[in-house]
Amino acid sequence: MKNIALSLLLILAVFSFSSCEKEDPKPEYFYSFKVNGVLKEFKTNNDAGITFLENGANRFTLFNMVTGDVLSKNAIIMSFRNTNQIELGQQYDMQNPIMVNGTLSPSLVLIYFNENGKEYGATLLKSQNPAALDDCSFIITDFTTEGSVGEFEGVIFDLSATGDLGQRTPVLITEGKFFLPNFVSNI
Asked: What is the pTM of this model?
C-alpha cells in the first residue's frame, strides 16, 4: 500500500511539472556558408547577433556569427558603416567606400576565423590597392522581432600574408546565410 501511494505521488508530481506552461522556445539561430566549396553550418551561441548602432547620421552594424566556447574559431565577423538605414533586399558591397575622419575606408569588412583560429579577411579597397582582390557583400532579406535573415559572400585572404597583394591566395566564402538576433543601440 505504501509503495502504491508513493508511486501515485511520483506520477502526480511528474504529470504536474510536465503540464506547467513552458516558455516559448528560443528560435534556432544559425549561420552557414561554403569555404572554397566546403559547407560549414553552425548553431549560434549567446554571443551571436547583429548590433545596430546609431550616432547621429552615422550608423554602424556589427554581425557577430559565433558558435561554441571559443569565439575565434568557426566565426564570421562583419562590420558595416554607412549613413543611411539598412534596407531589406538591398545588397551592400565592400567596394563602395565611406569617408571616415577624412580617410576613404571600406564600408564593409569581413573577417573569418577557421576551425583552427586562423584569420582571413576582406579589408582592402581596390581603389587604394589596385592589386587587391578583397571583396564582400551582404543582404538582409527579412527583419522580424526575433531577428534578421540574410545572405553574405566574400573573397578573403590570409591576414598574416605579406608581400605582393596580387600573389595572395584567395579564399572564397559563398552561399552564406544567417538568422541572427537583433540588438539596437543609440550611442
From this structure: 0.82
